[in-house]
Amino acid sequence: MSATVRRNRTGNRSRSGNGSRAGDERAARPRADVRAGVRRTSAFLARRSLKAHRRAWGAVFTATTAAAALIGAFAFVVGSLLLAQPPVERYAGADAVVAGDQRVTYTAKPWGSEPKTATAYLPERVRLDRSLVARAASARGVAKAVADDSVPVTVTVAGVGAGAGSGSGGAGADAAVAVGRSWAAAALTPYRLTDGHAPRTAGEVVIDGALASAIGSGTGAHVTLQFDGAPRSYTVSGIAGTDRRGGSPTVFLTEHHLAAVAGHPGTVDAIGVLAEEGVSADALRASLEAALPDRARGDREVRVLTGAERGQAEYPDALGARKELLPLLASITGTVFMVALLVIATTISQAVHQRSGELALLRAVGATPRQLRSAVGREVSRVAGAAAVLGAVGAVPLGLLMRSLLTTDPLPLPVPVWLPFAATAAAGVLVALAARPVAVLAARTVTGLRPAAALGAAGAPEPGEPGRVRTVAGAVLALAGVSAAGAATAQGGQAAAVAASGAATSLIIAVALLGPWIARGATRVLGTPLRRAGGVSGFLADRSAAAHHRRLGAAITPIVLVVAFVCVQLAAGSTLERAADRQAAAALRADLVVTGPAAGLPAGAARAVREAPGVEAATGVLRSGVVLAHSEMGEPKLDRFPVLGVTADQLAGTLDPHITAGDPADLTGKGTVAVGEDRASDLDVGVGDSVELRLGDGTEVRLRVVALYERALGLGEFMLPREALAGHVAVPRDQLVLVRSADGGAAQAVRRALAAYPGAQVRPATADDVRIAPPSSDQDDAMVVIGVGVIGGFALLAVVSTLSLITVGRRAEFRLLRTVGAGRRQVRRMLVLETGMVAVAGLALGTLVAVIPLLAFAVSVTGSMPYLPPARYGALALAVAVAAGAGALWPGWSGGGRSALGRRT
Fold it and tell me: Do 186 and 236 reside in the same domain of the chain?
């Protein structure tokens, strides 16, 4: 009985379990059917909406495509810059190169953190002790180690160019600039003799084929070479050739003679290493590193370079230039990213808001929130997906164009096969993923309504005020932007620039969030003159703007964005350039300047000029750089500064840095320095105090401050005696000689004095000759083109897309106005006046947003007002007006009879 009961109970439980699983399966099927139904409904709504709103989604497609192309192009360029290495030319035949470490480090302990180390690249070549050549040669697997030095040399054919030049030039119009190397180092490129024999004595040289063709010389001929002393005649013992293209013309001397003319017999530029047969690059590197000094043992570190790294020994400052360019490009890339997301969000939000009535009606007739959200998300995903693909394709040519602007001979930017695909794919995915959440968020106010409430919302006007969260966020960002601008006025240099940039970014985002409030204020300010000047059309424009603050705010935002961004980018550089020009012009006392080849003027040129009749003062100017180690809020910083090396006893007659303390006549020897006032204030030093600097080759020095001066923007933060820099630069030659004439007529006498110096030129002095940096370099111009041209162009495209989208969404409004009696010309004029109001409001507000951080930056860094050339601002205003007109007016005029403003309406 009990067994039977147990069997029945077991059976019942079994049957009950089977029934429960069957019930679960039956319940799961309806849920799956519901989900499938939601997907089908959403897909149907999305397809119908895409067809019905082609023009609106076309504007979104255009903006999203441009955003994807821009992000992809910048990702392409940043990736290429990260991979960039100097080219291998001079050491193409070497298996390894031993060179000094061009990096310098500084460690400090930030507040409440572990110690951190900053790294910077030195601007001058770090040389090696000559004794390391033997140590490298003794390493296992090394067939030969060669000391390699390069010395600039001016070459003329003997008997040519010996007399005084004519016109503005000096002597030696037929001179050629070349590089002197030892014949032993010829194997490192490699060069091979094509005629003659190697140099055997100090009076013989081998010249390469390119130089031989340039000067018309061959084996057995005589050439005049000038290193850093008097010109000397040499016999051409041979001609050498190489398979390598490019590079400087080369003159080969005996190793002993080259060491003598190089001027640093105890050191070498680098050591080229040729490996034994069968030795791999990794094995050679390990062997050399074991044989050479190591910082871990307390020695000064040397680097063993193989493969593509060998180019770093040829261009020692190339990676330093890359490190300076990367943060700037990264900053612009961050701005691009912000601008792109803002444009995408603005256009998609406007497109969705225009459909609020349609979505509310669908909600009222029974569509679920999930169906509406899915439908909107599907629409945007399809548009953004297609735009991302097209934008990714367009990113490649745009990225290649930007790369061509930034690439230089010392640092060509590589393009590996995978880079375009990776950069464009990342940009496309980013844009596609960002679009859907923005659309769903923009539609949330309608999709979350109850059906009864949605029925009333279907015909309600758009809300004129932003939500509380949006308003509070905008107010906080505006306050943060103004506070950052205020903080910039109390700082200097890079800190002020960073604070000003942060202020501009905060204010631009604040304007985007507070757009409806700003539009309301703009309507109140511009509405009265609009009504008075425009008659009926002005009245209609004023009433339309007052009733649609959200729409007007969306139209103003992209104009504010482009105006503020372009003004900040252009005016910051113009302000600094103008201040530096003024200070350099005020400092210049010389009336003549002597310039020479790119390698500089030999040491005797300044002395020869000084001894010329009618010359009151002449000082050679040696350019180099120093590195300053300091900390900001405990964070270690290494800043590179260009500096001038001058001759103190000739300084007063040629250059006036406007000394405010101390005596520039004390700027002599190897242990003194003059410091700009602002930098001295930052370092808290005065006359008699000491400043620790690292010279261009990394040598740490402690210098006594002998003078403070005011014109640091024009002449640099530090000024050193020429003799303090001469032993720490790659080529200790003056880049120019400043000349002060007694009566202003010493030009001919100076030219005659320079007859023995081929390539010297004499001309009137200008402020650019003494400026610490040239007014504009090729890379500066490239960054302006990229920062202003590319991003500004994208922002203008965003203006066109946004205003086009708004105009397309107003077709029903235009039809209603025509129905109640407004003439076509009246409606068109109303649209023109509204567009003008939008352009004026955007220009005024964008200018204000730019002026706040620019004023803080200019006052803190230059002590003057910000400056933007009127022609540039006029061009910007014209571009904005044209873009606004194209975006707002063209959709209203186009479309023929389908448009309420068309001729056949």
Answer: yes
